[in-house]
Model the fold of this input.
Amino acid sequence: MGIRMRWDALTVRRARAAVLVAAAIGMVTRMMIAVNTPGPADVRYFQGFAKALTVYGPIRIYEQPLPGLPLYNHPPLAGWLLLGLHELSGAGIPFATLMRVPASLADFLCALLVFEAVRRRGSIRTAAVCGAGVALSPLLTATSGYHGNTDSVAIALVLAAAFLLADRKSPLAAGVAAALGISVKFVPVVAVPALFVVALRGGRSTLTRFTCGFAGVIALLWGPVLATVPEQLKENVLEYGGGGHRLWGLVRFADQLGLPDSFVVFLRGDGHFLPVLICVAAGVWLAWLRPARLTAAVSVTLGLLLLLSTASALQYLTWAAAAMFVLGPWEGVACNAVLGLLASLAYHGRSAVRWSEPLLYLGEFGWLVLAVSLATGVRSLLGARPDTDGGTGPATGAGTDAVTGTATDAATTTATDAATTTATDAATTTATDAAKGAATATGSGTATVTPPRTAEPAPAADRTGPAATAAPADADVPTTPAGPAPAPDRPGPADRAEPSVN
Done:
């Protein structure tokens, strides 16, 4: 058993090392793209935001018009991040290169995170495939290495929050990670209710620590902005509806079906909250049913948000990239292959927001692949054994638990059987000797009184063979009948040779 446990630990270490190598290769590939390409227009916009932040600061910037730049719709932490990158660019490193570093680093860490999350519910081989899939994803390579937006950072943080809460039992750190995620980009807020559901199911202490971590970061980062420019923050960030192009999903199919423009305007206006509510409800429902599989529930929420999104932009495809690998290797490979091809071709085309007709059809196919992947992922999640610990048990690997449980059960069974066999043999020997003594006294007509003989109990360690047929522990033990004891030289059953432990 000890050899098996050591082998399992060695296998996990090798698989983790393989994922680490894949993550390093993916990181180097992304950085080579970042160094050798200027990136899309978003990189230049972020550089303009960074310069404006040095003038107005990360709080007052929300009320500034910023001529020549699009709407500044980023949460407070993104402003501090851009300020830091601007300072580093003063050391001679191009800002365009630096802008791709946070997303690439987030993919590196997310690959390791997906490996650790998947191996707790599936095989080590599956976990290694999923972790390496995130590291080498063509979709993430394109969006993080070339586009350089902050979506990958936000998604990695909210997945980390789910993992910390359900698998690592660290609610305080989980609350901090969740708050940091929505402070970089507001999109993962759809997963926050599911996190609170699992924290609530974990008990008062878990909920309190998670809430403290979450509320503390929100107060620190969002508090000054809410106190200074609340209306501008609400208009720029909280009510932002995404890009206005009709390239993806519901709005694309509405155009294909010839639906009136008023319907599309509704979807992109007041109606865009309906898909958001559906995503939140799905995440809460799955988190309540499978609290220990919170990472998968959050992944479904993120994938569903992309599926039902009324906004269109290539970087939005990032929302489901790592999430699909959490649901399964086939789901992850299918989505990342198709959507990765779409992103790569779109970035090499005339414009990242003006897709050719073949790219639009490829996007429709990618949407269908995502829908099927979500359906199979949810089916697997609901078909899994319901969790009995409510997601609050100790954070141990499934393989170690199985080995430890088997060893403990075997040891307990052996000890119990040995003790039961010893007691039963002793009682049987006493009864048999007494019966033989009575028969001897009756045949001779004379009762010879000799001291009663007590059977010598066999050592418990030597009773591992026939112990499986021993009488139950609560069976009635026969008492010794009255009568003379047998002659000492007549061997009873207890004097016969016992089988070997082997």
